[in-house]
């Protein structure tokens, strides 16, 4: 497997608690940012995650990568612009909080507005695990870790967000 060259920051690294900065379209389209996004996609798979936010690898920009099926999708400046009234509690873990799992209440569906990696606007709706991933990764962009929202810690789980 190809290596990303990125390292995942772990709690209590203060960079995980900073609010990330928006990305301009000009910066997004730069070869450096495009190469960074490639490395983020590789890192997500390398560390067996289903989502990854730029702050987790030491970059304070609003970029997330989400595994959708077998494909990694990039969302830049993602905003959750709509949520379902209904919520569900599920077990979460995090690459930045290794070995810790807990039950977190999340909206069952979300509507997300963002830029694709080429700079074009996108609006998408997600439900189930995809909705959880979006909420978890957007929290990272806002300096929030899942452990801040845990209702009850558990003794383990399968997914690493």
Sheet-strand content, in percent, reads 35-45%
How confident is the prediction overall: mean pLDDT? 95
Look up the CATH topology. Answer: Peptide Deformylase
The helix content, as a percent range, equals 10-25%
Count helical runs: 3
Q: What is the H level of CATH, i.e. the homologous superfamily?
A: Peptide deformylase
Instruction: Assign an overall shape.
Output: globular
The name of the CATH architecture is Alpha-Beta Complex
From the N-terminal CA to the C-terminal CA, the straight-line distance is 20 Å
What summary fits the major beta sheet?
A: 5 strands, antiparallel
Question: Given this structure, which CATH class is correct?
Answer: Alpha Beta
In the predicted model, the low-confidence regions spanning at least 5 consecutive residues are none
Rg estimate, integer Å: 15 Å
The arrangement of helices and strands along the chain is HHEEEEEEEHE
Task: Please give the domain count.
Answer: 1
The assembly state of the depicted protein chains is: single chain
Q: Name the structural class.
A: alpha+beta
Number of strands: 8
